[in-house]
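Subject: complex prediction, re-run

Hi both,

The earlier run crashed halfway through, so I resubmitted it with identical inputs.
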Amino acid sequence: MTQTKLEPPRERIVEEPHRDEAHLQPERRTTVIRPATRWPHLDLRELWHYRELLFRLVWRDVVVRYKQTFLGVTWALLVPALTTTVYVIVFGKFAKFPHGNTSYPSLVAAGVIPMQYFVSALIGSSMSLVSNLPLVTKVYFPRILLPLAAVVVPLFDLAVALPVLLVLMAVYNTWPDSAAVFLAPAFLGLAVITALGIGFLLSTFTARWRDVPYMLPVFLQVLPLVSGVMYALNEIPKKWQWLFSLNPMAGVIAGWRWAILGEAEPNWGQMTVSVSVAILFFVLGLAVFRSFEPRFADTI
Amino acid sequence: MPVAIETQELSKRYRLGQMQAAYGTLRDSMTRTAARLAGRVQPHERQEIWALRDVSFSVREGGVLGVIGRNGAGKSTLLKILTRITAPTTGRAIIRGRVGSLLEVGTGFNPELTGRENVFLNGSILGMKRREIQHKLGDIVEFSGIEKFIDTPVKRYSSGMYVRLAFSVAAHLEPEILLVDEVLAVGDAEFQQRCLGRMEDFSGTGRTVLFVSHNMQTINQLCDRAIWLDGGTIVEDGEPSEVVTHYLHTTHSSGSSISWPDDESSPGDDLARLLSVRTIDEEGHAVETIDVRDAVGIEIRFRVLRRGPPLFAKIRVRDRRGDIAFNAMDIEPHRQESSMPGVYRATAWIQPNLLQEGTTTVDVAVCTLNAPKLHQRAQRYEAVAFTVFDSGDGYSARGRFTGPMSGVVRPLLEWSVERVD
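This time it finished cleanly. Structure:
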């Protein structure tokens, strides 16, 4: 260091807290630093303690994205609208895909929108550790907040994109016809759980191997085809339905269509398979993430 | 007095592969695993080093502890563990109170957000609650002195404004425990001065400080206790003046040459071991001081224990402040051949008129290359040190200028000057 002579501080930074502000002072926490546990677990108490940071991380990404309101909103509307249009023309008009009782455009839009959410959530969460490198190497917080925030952020895009679906529903007069509509958020929840599970895995792998992000698009290209985005799942042969139900997004889209378009009720046996796979991914992803978590700062 | 920081046999082990080669590609990893399963490649022998080994100490509340030691002694690892950026391998530490580190100044600032938005973001990252930030917002903005621009995106800020705002947030974190790594403290002299000023402030208010520094004078002035780390263990723990004296004594005696009597004590692994390192002049004599106009050689003798991948020597030269001036390694094509057992001598010649005046230290290593990763098989931080002087009476970069010259190197450039008008 160049300088050693110390001068008295120019400004007094620390001031004594006034008595009535005592509640603003942080509680004196005792932290015990231990080696990483062999068996990963989710420390819910700690997550609760850091809830404001989760909020702040989500807020940051949403604010940055919608800062230029026009661009942000246009983008969130344009992508699903264009995708739907192309699918309707290619698969509906030319290929004449089966679409059950619902009009094809609404059917496709109801598939495109959750799929769009899922794709954004996966891309965001897979990069969440690497793109927040300065945070990971300089400050402690539960790293799990990063993929968690990345999965919450695209929900805002989904909300912005919903009018596309509503317009189509109005045009083709396909309104929800039963109380099943209240289950729509539950199916969205299934997409969130799946995105979290796979996001935990991908973010861990991305932090470990730098070529993983390049492999993701291959997977994402196939995904809409096997999730029933451009066709109704119950129109394909039964044994294939069972195979496809291993993909939780197939369950999400089938359930979501049932809930908001009044499509045929999903096969609950297949739905159970989808939910089980989603939960399996979630538990596996969480375990992998938590067991690598203590070493992220060493390896990235 | 209650204890603020307590560590109990804290240890941290790094696998060398983990440190250098971790961020690879999945394809490489799979190829390697496949080759290993097919039995074609010997399993990668894992080199391990203990960056910290059984470090136990405690700091009472309000104490100011200085941590000294050479580069690689484990100081930064200790800070990383105490700030919870990385987890220890064994042992534990107990910390009572909120920890701030000044490492984190400006961490997470987003250029698209305004100053005000960044205060909230950065504050939450540092562990402040929303109400707390709201309450301190006025003070933070006032202290930073950029009230007028607080609603401007920080991408439009000058770097000075940026640092002022960032520092202002960190300064209002009011941690009970402050961990400072002077070596890593970024920013200009004024900023570092502010950090030190902040520390002095701290010691007056009954808060706890742990201070890592290379500057012995600062340690003497600020700390009421010091520990000296070497090779990951505590060598001495006591009065700063005594610890500093002992530390300075031993580091100076290492001098311009070092050798190891036997393979057990010498640095290295099962492939290569260091035998000795010397600083020599052009006649091959060991030297401790060298004229800036003369070449200086770093002579590394090492033993190769078995046939293995190609080996080559590498040096890292540090200037008088310990900053890295440059890295250099043997890149001759003969290094493609696999290594044969025997004793080798590699000498790196540093050309005249390159090094800065003052004490130059050199880290040496014998490496293998597993492209693109470098494996240090045998290494020694600050193996040798020598003094570079400029008598000022001849042909050097200094010319006839006698004042201080800054910079990590001081090359003598060729100048072409012509009259154009």
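The radius of gyration of chain B is 25 Å.

- K.
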